[in-house]
Amino acid sequence: MRRAVTTAVVMLACASIVLAAGVKKYGKDLTLKETTKISAIYANPDAFNGKRVKVQGPIVDVCSERGCWIAIGSDQEFQTLRFKVDDGVIVFPMEIKGMTASVEGVLAVTTLSVADQIEQGEHMAKEKKTTFDPKTVKGPKTSIMIKGEGAEVF
By the 8 A CB rule, do 132 and 124 touch? Predict the structure, then answer.
């Protein structure tokens, strides 16, 4: 009986190590227990502005130039949230696209002017090697992103 219990404990410890090895950590350790839905942030962004949040979802895009941001898909269609870090602080590899991320940082809600959107659109087009039409910008736009501190990808 004692041998069976010891064997079970060893097997459980090994399984925990194998599962933990499947999680890649970037930046600081995650500290928040509660995960906020991205759809809840979209529904009331001002309520989260300046607050530390943890969100989770599929990685739908990765910065191809410096690996300085990832876009995380929401629980609702057509919603994504950008998790941005200062260049070089964390470098996300392209191959994590399609995986799941749990990320933590401070939410920032800003209003982008037409000029800011055009500048951002041109930068993104250059980064993705596509084109951008400034005529698609129709007026100011609310931008929601997380100033990233830590991430776990699995």
Answer: yes
- Gap between the Cα atoms of 100 and 102, Å rounded: 7
pLDDT in tens, 28-45: 999 999 999 999 999 999
- The model's pLDDT over 60-72, given as tens digits with 9 standing for 90+, comes to 999 988 899 999 9
Long-range contacts of 31-39 (CB under 8 A, 24+ apart): 31/104, 32/104, 35/102, 37/74, 37/75, 38/72, 38/73, 38/74, 38/75, 38/76, 38/79, 38/80, 38/81, 39/74, 39/75, 39/76, 39/79
Domains parsed from the chain with CATH numbers: 26-153 (2.40.50.140)
